[in-house]
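Q: Hi! Curious about what JmjC domain-containing protein looks like structurally. Here's the sequence.
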Amino acid sequence: MANAKLIVPATFVLLAFYFGTWRLRQMFWLSQWLMLEANLYMKPWPSAHPFFSMIARLEWHAPDRPAVVPPLHEFNASDFDASKAYDIAKGNTEVLVVRGLFDDAPSRSWGNEEFVRKYGRTKMVINNGTGANSMSHRHQEFYKIVDSNLQTLDESIHRGDSVVSYGIDEIFTQNPELADEVDVDRLGRGNHRQACRQLGMLYGRARAGQAGGLMYHNAISSNYLMQVSGYKLVRLVSNAYSLYFFPVSGGEFDSGFIASAKWDDLEELPTLDVVLGPGDVLLFPPWLWHSTKTVDPPSIQPIPTGQTDRHANLSIGITCRFPTPTAAVKNDLMLSLFRTVGGKHGIPSGSSKWARFVPLYSQFLDYVNEVRGTMPPWDDTNDCWSSKRTACRKQGVNQ
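A: Let's find out. The predicted structure is below.
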């Protein structure tokens, strides 16, 4: 009789779940995926993947599935008012692009022969594309991560090879004077030490399509992407569709996820495409899925001031990531929760081991640091969030 009394409430819960909102169902299935298949806390269960694929197909055809596209606000440098622009972007939860803001920044000349000669020995991690001509691939199949240096990368690009840097954080920690040349002050959020929790460079082949860019991934941080040379198409997809990306851990010191879904399976998702040219900057919020590829200029363009013919072969971008913990939790509770529990993931080395199992602990620390104005800068070698290769290795996190 007692069991019979449970049938009614259990049935009600089941019906409430299946007839609830599409977003609630997505949160539920995403949480199951992250526990079982994301390689965060245990080895994946391969037998579970067909089940999640079936669920994703069913949910894609659900009548209540929304067509969500990230909102975009666009400005020219001449009418850019930092305080008003960020208000419009609603506290780093929407997308903002400013055209020409860095047209005459000191970093405009990066990539010339003198730059490569001076900084060519800087070590970096690069993606050596193995499937550059195929759009039907997974992230892990497309890239072979190898150690290299800037000069080798530059030479490969000018030979026409399919290579792109995985993010040259070390060029700034080894050569701090370069951080001043980024001229982050133009963004209206202070200098690079105040504004950037991570500072990195993307160095790839121009007009190489996907082979010159990065496949779908996201991060727990907000991100500025400043284009120095070449033209880059950034494709942005709402994190409402995270289940379809089948997110997996990209690495112990990465703060976000990479997509394990095949590229073709993501083609139907609603996207926001933004083409960045030299001098443009894009701001996008936490957890937004994004991929990049290097494309031809929209029309015949003169060589930008401070650049040479060799820049026509280069796509150079600068990334400035900064934590917005409130926006991260607001934008995606599931991704925020699962990415920061059970691993190091940017928690300062002085924290107790048990802190790694406290939900949203790292976001709480970021929130406190944000309020107190004590956020670690990009060159803090005690903070795994900042200088990844240096700081994370100090904490015992292997690449």
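A: A fun detail: The longest strand covers residues 314-322.
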